[in-house]
Amino acid sequence: MHxxxxxxxxxxxxxxxxxxxxxxxxVCVDNDQTKIARLEQGQIPIYEPGLEELVGxxxxxxxxxxxxxxHQAVQRSEIVFITVGTPAMPSGEPDLSxxxxxxxxxxxxxxxxxxxxxxxxxxxxxxxxxxxLVQDGMGAMQLATAGGGxxxxxxxxxxxxxxxxxxxxxxxxxTFFPDRIVVGSQSSRAVALMRELYEPIIRRxxxxxxxxxxxxxxxxxxxxxxxxxxxYAANAFLAAKISFANEIANLCERVGADMTRVALGMGLDAxxxxxxxxxxxxxxxxxxxxxxxxxxxxxxxYGYDAQLLKSVQETNLxxxxxxxxxxxxxxxxxxxxxxxxxxxxFKPHTDxxxxxxxxxxxxxxxRLGAKVRAYxxxxxxxxxxxxxxxxxxxxxxxxxxxxxxxxxxxEWPEFTTLDLARLRGVVRTPFLLDxxxxxxxxxxxxxxxxxxxxxx
Length: 456
Prior knowledge:
This protein is an alpha/beta fold. Helices cover 45% and strands 13% of the residues. The strands form 3 sheets. The chain has a 6-stranded parallel β-sheet with strand order 3-2-1-4-5-6, sandwiched between helices. A 6-stranded parallel β-sheet has the order 11-10-9-12-13-14. α1 crosses α3 (51-61) and α5 (97-109) packs across α6.
């Protein structure tokens, strides 16, 4: 199939590369000429395992192309994805200006039936709004051509909601092996085309791999509004689960329980599950903060006070301050002290620093007069650009030299295998704050560290 993906951010680039991998001809559109030129040269603007290889392969095969010409890309495609950003505004409401501009532009480019897919995370009710904007774009096109071109009835389209559930750091795997594919539409024609698009994934018939067998990937068909709500509800629930784990961890510290054992005992209950019960410095990234805020705003618009979701936010923000409090309790005055942060991205296997707890902690420490040294496998350069006072190093041991405290702020796998004796040999004060419960306390203590975890 011929597919157009508008927006070459995280979701758009992953979506385009993966659709090319399963045999479709994809053109990715962006209005940033410099970004498109770099993508055509194989330069990927984000770090995501496996993405650079997919883009490189299918740029060569011709299944994946990049352009700034939205009009031409839409006209050659059967399915058009909208994957532009919807960042949160100060009110918590998502900024939909990019979605609006793209929807109108798509309307102005229509030359026949298209399935227009909302993959950007948009508020409930946005499907009908996008359809209205596409119609407006079609009308403007007709006026501009003085009545020439297609009549509105000659160029029908359907708007579909197809939310993404990608985890940064495993987005390629999540695309090919999803828990479900959700499609919101009341058009049987649009649903049939979306199923055809995803058929290799649904049936587990992926290029270069033997069929896995087993049941098909669930293909969930709903109305537009329900599909939009599924995305928000899923992310809000996961955020709530993490905030709950952190709340219990804080109580564990006070009563003398070990949150890692509590989480294990809870998670073995099939009704609860083990995922997203790891206590730490709180959640961050682009999705959870934005989507929880948006859902609270949606509730307010419809006259409902989402108190539970507000508490989820408050618990998460409070969790970040506990790390600072632990450092102050151990070191007393932080002014003039050297603190090392191991990990800066909001989670491992990504260079995404958006709303990263480590960056919040770094800013707090610098504001209090501490010197902050840091190491992150991929995000160090970007972090330095955002926070020039941050000192970044090429390995954890260099970063920890002369430190009065070492904080594990992101659970990169390499931090679980640190040579703790070597680390102890380079620090000035042997205090280790394990903000992700990545280490065994006994191992850290045996190496000579005063160890503090989260809820341990």
